[in-house]
Each structure stands twice: as C-alpha cells, then as structure tokens.
Amino acid sequence: MRLRNLPWLLLIAVPAIAAPPELQTPEPVIYLADNIDEQEELGWCIDTLGRGWSEQLQTHSCKPQGGDVQFAYDSEARQIMSVEFPGKCATLREEPSAGVFFDLLDCSSTSSAQLFSYDAETLEFTPENDRSRCVAAGAESRAAGPFMSRDLVLAPCASTDAALKQWIVKGDM
Fold it and tell me: Which of 29, 119, 161, 170 is the most buried (most CB within 10 A)?
C-alpha cells in the first residue's frame, strides 16, 4: 500500500503515558506522578535517609503508613516542609547546580536554599533563584529493605525525563 493513495492519513506522535502509582500514603504528601520502577507500585515520595530522623533527603517508596515520607508544600512560604518533623524544610545543600543534593534543616523564611516554586501545570518544583533546574528523583533506583530508594537531586529541567521531575502535591499542612 502506498501512502499517496491515503491522502487522509495523519501520523500523530503520542507521548508515553505515565503509569501512576497506587498511592496509599495519607495526606499531606508529595510524590512523583509516574511510578517508574517502584516494584510494589507504591510510588516515589520525598523521604529522610534511613529510618526516622535524618538531615539527608532522598526519594523513597511511598510508605502506606506515612511518617517520614510525608511532606507538604506551603505555597505562601514557598517551602517544602516535613510533616513528621515539624519546623524542618527541604534545603539545597549547595548553590543551585545540577546534581546538588537536599538536606532537611530548620525552616527559615530568609534562606534562599529553602525557597521553591511549584508549577501545577508542569508539576515541577524549581528553586526560586534558578528556574532552569528542577527537584528530581535520581535516575537509578536501589533496594531499601522491603522498599526502594533513589537520590533526590537538582537537575536541569530541559533535559530531565518528565517521570523523574513531575510531582503531585496532595493535602495541606
């Protein structure tokens, strides 16, 4: 069959459809819109490294019971805040650049390292002082006991896979 015999044929590029997680974590919660490779389809949440309190943040399987995977976005303060550890906020470890990691430190309204914008259309978090970079899950997943984890990093928005940088924000503090 030749295409010239089909003048009405239209080819349309369709983006890959994300596979959303089967989220069980109670609100408030911030999680990736795509389940990516989370083995139990729990999704990926912002989390403290290890069990309980830690100053280091990562991306982790969303735990059904909540706890240290529960974070909320305060749009007025422009901060990503821990629910489990009140008064603690996601903080850039260094000046914004690709590959920078996040810590969980005391919330401060004067710390530019804690100020993020959330775009509800693109589902992206960007630092206030560098809109070309996005809060993203690391590209590689690893075992974390019965769950899975990834790094939580700042990545170039333009070249980062949407599955790693599109976050859903549910619930308020």
Answer: 29
Please indicate, yes or no, whether the overall pTM of this predicted structure exceeds 0.85: yes
In the predicted model, is pLDDT for residue 97 greater than 80?
A: no
β-bridge partners, 127 = 116
133-137 and 142-144 beta bridge pairing? unpaired
pLDDT in tens, 102-134: 999 999 999 999 999 999 999 999 999 999 999
pLDDT in tens, 18-60: 589 999 999 999 999 999 999 999 999 999 997 778 899 999 9
Is there a contact between 168 and 32 (Cβ–Cβ < 8 Å)? yes
Options 2.80.10.50, 3.90.1750.20, 2.70.150.10, 3.40.50.300; CATH for 22-170 is: 2.80.10.50
CA dihedral 45, 51, 52, 56 (to 10 degrees): -70
Identify the CA nearest to 101 among candidates 48, 152, 50, 161.
152
Number of H-type helices and E-type strands within the chain: 1, 13
Q: Which helix (H) or strand (E) holds 162?
A: helix 162-165
